[in-house]
Amino acid sequence: MNQWPDLDLLSTLSTLASLLLAFTLGALIGFERQVRQRTAGLRTNTLVAVGAAVFVDLAMRFQALYGGSPSPMQVIAYVVSGIGFLGAGAIMKEGANVSGLNTAATLWGSAAVGCCAGAKLLPEAVLAALFVLAANTLLRPVVNRINRQPVQEEFSEASYTVYVICRRERQSEVREQLVEWLEAASYPVRDIDQHPFGQSEAEIEATLYATAVDADELDQIMARLEAETGVLQAFWNASAED
C-alpha cells in the first residue's frame, strides 16, 4: 500500500517561494496587458506563469523523490508546446488582417517566466519578466513611429486595391470599364470581386499585381470612373506585403 511521503518543510517553502514569484511576475505582465485591454490580461498571464511554475516544480520534486523520468526539461518542453495551443486561440484572422500575435507571444513569455520560477532560477525569472515587460512597453513607441512612416518600395512590395461603389444595375459595365482602363495603364488585375453595398449599390474590389504605381495616374483613373454614370465613389489604397 502506498504511503504518503514525509512532509519536507524546506522543499514546501521552496515551492511556495517559486509560486509566489511566478504569481507576482505573471501579474505584472498581465497588468500591462489588462491596462491596454488585450484578450489575455491580468488573470490569464498570472495563471500561465503559475501553471508553468507548478508543472516544472512538480517535475523537480518528483525526480528528487523517486528519480527517473520525466525530467524537468521534458516537462518544460511539454509546457512550451501546450502554451502554443493556448496562444493559437488568442490569434484571430479577419481577411488579410491578423491580430493577437503579440498577445500569444506574451503568453509564451509568461510561461517562460513561470518555468524559470519553477526551476528555482529566481533571478532568471525576474530578468525574463523584465524583458517581456520592456518588449511590450519600451518598444511600443518605436513600433508606432515606424508604422507611421510611408512604405518604401525598395524595401518591400505593396499590394494595391481599387474600390468602386456603383449602382447595382451598372456593376457589370463599370467592372468591364475598370479592368479595361487599369490594363491600358499597365496595371493588370490579379483578382476582382463584387458584392452588395447598401440597399441598391454594389462594391467592386480589384486587387492589382504587386508592382510600383504612379499615384497621380491611378488617381486620374479613379476620377474618370467617378465621372461614369452610376458610379458613386472610386478610390484605391496600398498595403505592405511580406
What do these coordinates show?
The protein is α+β, with helices and mostly antiparallel strands. The protein folds into two domains: 9-147, no CATH class; 158-240, Alpha-Beta Plaits (2-Layer Sandwich). It contains eight helices and six strands, in the order αααββαααβαββαβ. The chain has a four-stranded antiparallel beta sheet with strand order 4-5-3-6, with helices on one face. Strand 1 (92-94) and strand 2 form a beta hairpin. 26% of the residues are buried. The model has no long low-confidence stretch (mean pLDDT 82).
How would you describe this structure in keywords?
242 residues, alpha+beta, 4-stranded antiparallel sheet, 57% helix
Topology:
Elements: H1 9-35, H2 42-66, H3 72-90, E1 92-94, E2 97-99, H4 101-118, H5 122-137, H6 140-147, E3 158-167, H7 171-184, E4 189-197, E5 201-208, H8 215-226, E6 231-240
Antiparallel strand pairs: 1-2, 3-5, 3-6, 4-5
Helix pairs in contact: 1-2, 1-4, 1-5, 2-3, 2-4, 3-4, 4-5
Class per helix and strand makeup:
alpha+beta
Largest sheet: 4 strands, antiparallel
Please tally the β strands and state the result: 6
Runs in which pLDDT lies below 50 for 5 or more consecutive residues are none
> What is the overall number of helices?
8
Principal-axis shape equals elongated
Strand content: 15-25%
